[in-house]
TrEMBL record:
Entry GO terms, CC: endoplasmic reticulum membrane
Pathway: Steroid metabolism; ergosterol biosynthesis
Main location: endoplasmic reticulum
Species: Diatrype stigma
Protein's UniProt name: C-8 sterol isomerase
Gene Ontology molecular function: isomerase activity
SUPFAM superfamilies cross-referenced by the UniProt entry: RmlC-like cupins
GO biological process, one term: ergosterol biosynthetic process
Domain of life: Eukaryota
Record key words, sorted: Endoplasmic reticulum, Isomerase, Membrane, Transmembrane, Transmembrane helix
EC number: 5.-.-.-
Annotated family: Belongs to the ERG2 family.
One Pfam family linked to the record: ERG2_Sigma1R
């Protein structure tokens, strides 16, 4: 048999590469299909029973906020201490009590808004944070896979929904409930801080939290700090069987 020409060898190599690529793509899609098949019923089961995984109660958080405001009017730092201390007493294994440690605070850029954040609790189905800014900010709320309850501790938050002609105005003691899957424009016209509680599917929300840092600010140290603290709290809670 005559040896293959150089042209024939190149054609054969190209065919082999295409076949290899096709096999790789098929293998990748197969793995994805298997993962979806395994995870879908698990996610569905958890979705139907999300209430069983929550450790924080909406009304209790609102009552705690009201008591903190009454005990320490016009002193945001004392209000935060009051809230975090009581939460840590009730949930010692699931609450980060180090709110007075500057290393536990970091900037968060999301939806065009910027503020300081301290993670009180983070797990697969819940997060509880202190979020705010001493100089004000404005942005997009994001469209999330969890209900979000914004308990105002100081200042005001304004919110706008397309089609409305007046803003919603939330003051200290009020709660702004952003329902799962909905979106608004929001603004903190001056200094404003809040206890923010989200319940639902938390991991998908992290993409919104990282987007500005990866595409706009490129503040890698802040992204690392946010990732480290959030991951630490989520993994810590998972190890305690808190989903």
């Amino acid at each position: 048999m005559a040896p293959k020409s150089k042209s024939q060898q190149q054609q054969q190599q190209q065919k082999n590469k295409k076949k290899s690529s096709c096999c790789s793509l098929t293998g990748f899609l197969t793995v994805i299909g298997i993962l979806v098949g395994i995870l879908s019923p698990i996610v569905y089961m958890i979705e139907q029973n999300l209430e069983k995984f929550y450790i924080f109660d909406i009304e209790e958080l609102h009552d705690l906020t009201q008591r903190g405001l009454s005990a320490h009017p016009n002193d945001t730092a004392a209000i935060v201490n009051y809230i975090v201390s009581e939460l840590h007493e009730k949930h010692p294994n699931h609450v980060n009590p180090k709110h007075d440690d500057p290393a536990e605070w970091f900037f968060n850029n999301a939806g065009g808004a910027m503020g300081g954040m301290y993670v009180v609790h983070a797990s697969i189905t819940e997060y509880l944070i202190i979020f705010g800014s001493a100089v004000g900010t404005e942005g997009h709320t994001g469209r999330h896979t969890a209900d979000d309850y914004f308990h105002i501790l100081a200042g005001e938050q304004w919110a706008y929904t397309p089609g409305d002609y007046k803003p919603e105005i939330f003051q200290a003691g009020d709660v702004h409930h952003l329902r799962r899957g909905t979106v608004k424009q929001y603004k903190m016209p001056e200094g404003c801080f809040a206890l923010e509680y989200a319940r639902g599917w938390i991991p998908p929300m992290l993409f919104f939290g990282f987007a500005d840092g990866l595409t706009s600010t490129l503040d890698l140290p802040t992204l690392w700090r946010m990732s480290f603290i959030t991951g630490r709290e989520m993994i810590g809670n998972l190890l305690l069987a808190k989903i």
